[in-house]
Design goal:
This protein has 138 residues and is an alpha+beta fold. Helix content is 46%, strand content 18%. Helix 2 (15-57) runs antiparallel to helix 3.
């Protein structure tokens, strides 16, 4: 029968702590990455939604200038409600007789979720989304 001495039994103590010390940085890196990228994708979805809704809101305009004003007004009112501040966005509205195109560029570098970007591979600093809506004549 094989006998294990007391010295061999004691050498197993602390193994879990050593393994945890080896694995913890990787787990932390992955957790921070999930938080940062999850927040970034949430913001990207919000910007896309804002672009679609502002393009749809601009359909009530009679000419290109009025459509542009309606879209910009919608972005300035609804953007902060969904987490997209007006000061960090640039909005362009292009309109002709067939379509209205709204493009929103959002600089996420000042958003609180991006404070953790130094702990992982950072996502792009600018979210750019566009929505195009036909004016009729389907």
């Amino acid at each position: 029968m094989l006998r294990i001495g007391k010295r061999a039994e004691r050498s197993r103590e602390g193994v879990a702590a050593v393994e945890f010390a080896i694995v913890f940085p990787l787990l932390l890196f992955m957790l921070v990455g999930m938080i940062v990228y999850g927040g970034w994708f949430w913001l990207a979805h919000s910007v896309q939604s804002l672009a679609y809704e502002s393009a749809r809101a601009s359909l009530g305009g009679l000419d290109a200038a009025e459509r542009r004003a309606l879209a910009l007004d919608f972005v300035s009112q609804r953007g902060p409600e969904i987490g997209v501040p007006v000061g960090a966005t640039s909005v362009s509205v292009n309109s002709d007789n067939q379509v209205v195109a709204v493009t929103i560029n959002y600089d996420v570098s000042t958003h609180p979720i991006m404070a953790l970007k130094g702990l992982t591979v950072p996502p792009p600093q600018t979210i750019s989304k566009e929505a195009v809506v036909r004016l009729g004549g389907y």
